Every structure is written in C-alpha cells, then in structure tokens.
Amino acid sequence: MASGVTKLAVGHPFGTNHAEQKHIITDTFLSDTIKIRLQTTGSSENRFKGPLDCLLKTIRKEGPQALYKGATPPLVGWVFMDSIMLGTFHNARLLQQSWNGDKPLSIWQHGLAGLAGGLTVSFVATPVEQVKARLQVQYDTASKVYNGPIDCIRQLVRNNGVPALWMGLLPTMVFRSWFFVFWSSYEVTSRKEEDRAPVD
C-alpha cells in the first residue's frame, strides 16, 4: 500500500499529512481487504471464486462498509511507521557519512540505510497489520471474534501474551527489506537525473 514514503521519493518530503493518509486508505483499502480475504480462505471452504466474486459477496452480505474493516490500525499506524522508517533511514545515512568522511555515500550505503529503515519499522508494522488482517476476515456474526482493534489487541495479549502482537515479525522484516532496493534505485535514478540536468 502507498505511504508518505512515496511522496518523499518524488520530491515532496514529509508531504503526506493525516488527511492525505485517510484519503490513501479510502482509495486502497478496498483492494487490500479483497486480497487478505482471498489469501486466508482455504480452497476447501469454497467461499470465493475470485476477486470480483469476493467483492460482490462482501458488499451483498455485509454492506460496503465491510470493505473497510480494520482500517483504523493503519490509519493511526502509518503516521508512526513513516516517521520511524524515514528517521531510521536518515540517521543510518548520517552514521555512514561519519565513517566516510568527505567521501559521498555509495549506492550500496544508501541501500543499507533503507534496509535499516525497513527492518526497524517492521516492529511497528507487524502488530498494525496483524490487527488489521484479523478484523478484515470477520465475515459475519458466526466468524466475529473481535469488536474492534482495541478488543483485538486485548484478546491477543490476554490469550497469548504481549509477544503475540509480533507474530509474523520475521516475514514482515523479509518483506520490508525491499527498502534496500527502493532507496538504492531511487539514488541511482536521482544521480542520473542530476547528470542530465542542464548546467546554468
């Protein structure tokens, strides 16, 4: 899903405010809910025949508001996630620059800074995404376990302890290691654009 990082990458640092985050969720959460439901439905259940069938059945049986189940955790969490990721990325670059002295950071070092940001933000993203996904797959009264994100957190902690919030941390870290590619490729592109820019 999109985040404020996208704004930063195209030249609008920290340009995604809370209202824009809300707009992003409104635009993208529909497809995320469908994706999560398809990923977590076993073939033996035969609940959905495909994305369109999932969309239509969800609206018909639960109403259009069901497409936004679990939207609150990312709405709140993205604010912190972008701040943590970008803060770690920035400080990792500063640290490496102190090692380099006057020598500019290499593409590899920009990638490592991005990797550090991705790994760090995983500790926030994991509980946010877990609560979101658990709420998204509550299809009806029979499958309803949680009354909302706070109740979901309480039940997870009560039944399995605080570490339960970080189940799936390793896969999340592996997934978010893509920030190595994101920031290194961004730096490559930026340098090429600078080389092409006319000299006044």
Automatic annotation (TrEMBL):
State if Acyltransferase is listed as a keyword.
Answer: no
- Name the domain of life this protein comes from: Eukaryota
One Gene Ontology molecular-function label: L-ornithine transmembrane transporter activity
TM annotation in the entry: none
Solcar repeats: from-to residues: 7-95, 105-192
Q: How is this protein situated with respect to the membrane?
A: Multi-pass membrane protein
Q: Where in the cell is it found?
A: Mitochondrion membrane
Q: Which PROSITE patterns match?
A: SOLCAR
Example of a GO cellular component annotation carried by this entry: mitochondrial membrane
Question: What GO terms describe the biological role, i.e. biological process, of this protein?
Answer: mitochondrial L-ornithine transmembrane transport
Keyword annotations: Membrane, Mitochondrion, Repeat, Transmembrane, Transmembrane helix, Transport
Kindly give the InterPro entries that the UniProt entry links to this protein.
MCP_dom_sf, MCP_transmembrane, Mitochondrial_Carrier
Q: Which family does the record claim for this protein?
A: Belongs to the mitochondrial carrier (TC 2.A.29) family.
| Protein's name in the database | Uncharacterized protein
